[in-house]
Amino acid sequence: MASRQAIGFIAPSLAGEFMTGVMEGILQSLRKHQYDLIAVQGAPQHLINNQLAKQHIKAWIVIIDPTGLNELATNMPAVVISAPNAGERFPLVMPDNNQSARAMVEHLIEHGHSKIAFVGNFNNSDMRDRYTVYCDVLNEHSITPNPAWVVDVGDYTEGRTEHAFYPLIANGLNFSAVVAANDQQAVGVMMALETKGYRVPHDMAVVGFDDATIAQHANPPLTTVRQQPQLLGSIAADTVIELIAGKPVSNAPIYVPTIPIWRQSCGCKDVYTGIKTSTVAPKQQHWADQLAQRMQQVIYYPVPIDPNLSLNESNQGIRSLIQALQAKVEAQNVEVDYLAAWYAIITVSSKSDTLSVLYQVFATAANQQLAQIDLPADQINGFLATAHTSLLHTVLELQRNEITGLDRLLAANHELSMLLVSNQKQQTGKLAWMQRLPVSIACLALWDEQKPGFLRLASIYSKDGSSTIKAGSHCHGSEFPPAEFLEQARQLNSSGYVACVPIVTASHDWGILAFGHADVQKTIADINSLYIWASILGSSLEHEALESTLDAEREVLRGAVDREHALSKTILELGCPLIPLLPGVLLIPLIGSINTERAQQITETVLNGINEQQASRVLLDITGVSMVDTHVASSLMQIARAAMLLGAKVALVGVRPDIAQSIVSLGINLNTLVTYPNLRTAIQQMAMV
């Protein structure tokens, strides 16, 4: 089996559009250098003790949280993304927070806003940087930042931000604009404003950061900063490859450019993407090569484009569109799959405004070239209509696929949830529910408490059933994922991509869920859902463990109950012995408390004994009775009266001073009973008689 080393990627969460973009960029670089990628959710400190994947990893890339990286990467290279607190030892790659955040705040000031709030997650260094810039820009414009208008959400999501923002607007609007540190938080602010009846941007201007998909579809569309997570990832991967090769790497941070995108949420009337195109190729270059360069600039902006880029070196989708235009110009009959062409472009950039600019560039060039050959206007319009319609069709098809995918994910979620609430033990751990997911291979490994440091491969899933890994076998944490699993991932895709999501609940670290797919982008896109299922799986494992514990406790309790019943029976048998003391005299020693059931037993024993032994006297020895109350006294009187009906007299033996005081204080009348302080006295008195 071929052995190949991997680059490890550690992130607090593998979910989210930004993080998946970073991983796509890392994969693009590693693919060229024949390295696998093992992505792990968590922080470096979590891997120090369990040594997860240590034997496979050649170097680390860590994003946001570098806690423990110094110890984890003691003798190996590492690069950090958006983690300036990692120290000078590790090269740092960061988005350009300064210029872009500055542009956002200054843009709001240009719109006339001076009372501007800030919303962010101050646990994140990038967001702290954006807050610092926010304060600097306000101060530069003689505007004092108001701490009362700053919200530290402590989270990145819309829902948390919405609830955190309500207190600021509970008594009306004291400010007119909000700078949010990411798009999810900006949308959360907009949700809170809408709930309270305020309109964006009429009552409140809102800007975000990242240009996530949610920004385009917000109502109104969100003004934001377009980050380039793929570029962050690819630069980090290129840097770590250079470190592995022993090449010198600068300690200066590498800043990745960002782009302000003006949309309607800030008060702008028109959308401005900031995308600039220009022909950087030599003038003598063919128009098709020049057009390829301009279109390439649009989808990769602001990444510089090689001035010598030719049509044949451009994106496959761009190449197909331009070749279709060339065929039209040269009056050739060439079949072009427009849907495939646009799909190849959308896989690079799915931003609606980017696609709009791209189509405008293509349409402008098409009009120019087709007009030169005197093609009738209706034919030009027909050609462009075909290209434009196919673009819309591709976008709608992708959206339809997303909806279908959501239906599939919901079905899988339902199946797993039903297993969770059912009594089918060990079923969730068999990964059969993954059949509904776009996952080709998966492995559930649980930490073995009997073998510290080892994982038990509880379940192996392979969509085509080809996996040769045996469930139930063990693997040391440093060797997980197993080499066979990585090899299978490599056969599915040359990138050898595997994601590892910890199965952790509040009370226990259960193990790891590792998975991969032939379509790497598809796998990355579904990490959000798999992250949720990992949580459900953890809950299911905890549910099964709790059920097993309860079953064991039930067995213990059942045994205890059985023993108690046996003991009670023995006590009943021994608790009222009948002893013939003298001719015609019976002794019945009593021990413990006397309840209704016991009183009935004593009565039956006394009466049966009198009848069988023809006794005339019965001594009830209460020396061992702990307490005599009205209930016990009443029971004793009833026994005495029943004995008298059979011609026998009952005497009490063992009346202690404390019992005598209790009888007197309770006003109990035992005048009809003869009493003796102890058994010796009773025997002596009877002997005298």
Automatic annotation (TrEMBL):
Domain STAS: 583-686
Keywords: DNA-binding, Transcription, Transcription regulation
Statement: the UniProt record of this protein carries the keyword Manganese: no
A molecular function GO annotation: transcription cis-regulatory region binding
Coiled coil: none
Any Pfam family matching the protein: Peripla_BP_3
Protein name: Anti-sigma-factor antagonist
